[in-house]
Amino acid sequence: MQEYDLVIIGGGPAGLAAAEAAKKSGACSLVILERDRELGGILNQCIHNGFGLHSFGEELTGPEYAKRYIDRIRDLKIEYMLATMVMDLSEDRVVTAMNSENGVFSIRAKAVILAMGCRERPRGALNIPGYRPAGIYSAGTAQRLVNIEGLMPGREVVILGSGDIGLIMARRMTLEGAKVKVVAELMPYSGGLKRNIVQCLDDFGIPLLLSHTVVDIHGKNRVEGVTLAAVDEKGKPIPGTEEFYSCDTLLLSVGLIPENELSREAGIALSAVTGGPLVNESLETSVPGIFACGNVLHVHDLVDFVSEEAATAGKNAAAFIAEETLRSAGEQGPVIPLLAEGGVRYTVPSCIHLLRMPEELKVRFRVGAVYKNAYINVFAGKERVIRRKKMVMAPGEMEEITLKKEWLSEKTDTITVTIEEEEI
Amino acid sequence: MTEKRNLTCIGCPMGCALTVEVDDDGYVWSVTGNTCKRGEIYGKKEVTNPTRIVTTTVRVTGGEMDAVPVKTKWDIPKDKIFSCIEDLKDIVLTAPVKTGDVVLADAAGTGVPVIATRDVI
To answer: Which value does ipTM take for this structure?
Structure first.
C-alpha cells in the first residue's frame, strides 16, 4: 500500500487551497485525487467574472481564479492524479481509488482532507408532475454544455429557482441568443447574490417571480411549456394563479447538496442542516485526522471564502501530521458546543476544543429568513460577547463572526449565535 | 427635474440599496444608502455611464476543447454588450491559445480588447 502524509480528495478550489497551505505548513508528501480530467473543479465552467474580489482584490473569471491556484500547486511541485475516482474512505484513513492507469489502488494517509464539493439538487427531488421530456436540465449541466462543450440546450427557456447558477445561466443563455422568459422562485426572496440579480436579470429585463413554482411540465418528447403558479406562505400552489409559459427548456437551480457519500462510508457524523460533516475548530470531522473544507462542508456563495477555509483546513491537517495537535481526549481539554439559535440555521464549526483554539477563530453561518436592521448576538455562556448590527441578512448570503479565545474559559459551557430582530 | 433611482450596489456582496438623485442633464445630486465609497462611485456611474465586463466563449479548432472562455479586458458600456457578442460570434481560433491572448483587438468600437481566460492546448 502506498503511504502519504496527506491525501486531498478533490482538486477544485477547496482541494487546491488546502494543498497549498498544507505544503507550506510542512506536510511533506501529499497528493490530490481529482476525478475530472483537469484541476480547478467547477471553476472551469464558471466563465463569468466576479471571483477573487476578496482574496485578490480584482474580478477574475472562474478559469483565471483556478489558474492562480493551479500555478501555485505546480510551483510547489505538489503531486496530483487526474481522472481518478475515490471509491472508499475508511475510518483509519485508507483511501481506495481507481483510474485507468493504475486500476484500483489504496493509499494509507496520516491525514485526509475532504474537498469533494457539492452537486445540484435534481428534478427527482422536486415532485413536479408531468412526463420526462427532453429539455430539462440542472443549471450547472446547462452551464457545462454551453461553456465547455459549446452546445446550446435550447432556445426558449424558463428557469426554476433563483440560485446563483440559475441567475448566471439566465444571462449566459440570453447572450447566446436564447429567450429567457422568466425565473420563478418558490421562496419570497432570491437564493442568489444581489449582484447576480442586478447583472444577470435586471440588465436583460428578465422577470423574477418570487413565491412562484412550476406546477406542470408540458410535452412528451421535448418540453413544450411549463405552468407556473403563485404559492402561499407554506409553498403550496394557489389555485387560479396558474399561467402557461411556452418554452423548450426548463433549467433547475434549486439548491446544492454537499457530496458526502465517502464521508458516510468513513463513519463521519454529518449535519442534518448542511448535509456536510460536523467539524470542530480545526475543521476536523468526528473522525480524527479527517478534515473537511469548501462546499463538501457547507455550500458557500463566494469561492474566496472556500479558499480561505480550505487553507485553514490544510494548515490544521499539517499540524495534525506533525503531531503538534493535542490528540487524545484527555489532552484536548473542554469541548464547547456552538449553538445555532433564533434564526441561525447552523454554524461552522459546531464545537470548539478550547486548548486547540487559535487566538481568533472565524465562525461562518447562515440565517433562515431575510432580516432587516437585525443584530447578530453571540453569547459565551450567558455573557454577550458580540452584538453587531446588520442592515440586511438573507439565507443566500453567508455571514461570519470572529470569536476571540480571551472571551472563553473552562467555565464556558456553550457558545450561542443568535439573531435579534427588534431594535432596542 | 431630479429623478430618484433605486439601485442595488454590486461593489461587494453586501448589496446596499442605493438611492441616486439625478437630474435631466445626468448630474448626480446625491447617492444615499451606501455604506462605503465604492457604493457612491457605483451609484454615480450606474446612472451616467453603466458598464460591464462581458464574458462568453469563442470557438477553437485543433485543441483539447472546442470553446475557449474569453472576457473584455475592462468593462465596456452596457449598451455595447450585444454588439460585442455579435463581433465574437464568427471568430474561430486555432489552438494553442494562452490565457491573456488577444482574441479581438477592439470590442464593438469601444477600444477594449477581448482576451482569452484559459489555456487551450
So the answer is: 0.89
